[in-house]
Design goal:
Radius of gyration: 13 Å
Strand content: 15-25%
Strand order of the largest sheet: 1-2-3
Shape: globular
Structural class: alpha+beta
Number of strands: 3
Amino acid sequence: MGQTRITIRPLRVADTEDIYELTHMPNVLWGTSPLPSTTLEEWRQIIEQWAHDKRRHTFITELQGKAVG
């Protein structure tokens, strides 16, 4: 049986499309604060703010080079 390797690392602006995809999955969107109408460009702006805020520590889970959580 092979092992699946996940990585937990700081959020990067390059993760925007993966995060956008995650937040628009039906079972993820329910119960979260972002509106379904939040555009990819709006997400990019949000993530840029999070990624560059020295007081915020935001991490993602990466699997095979893709942000999955």
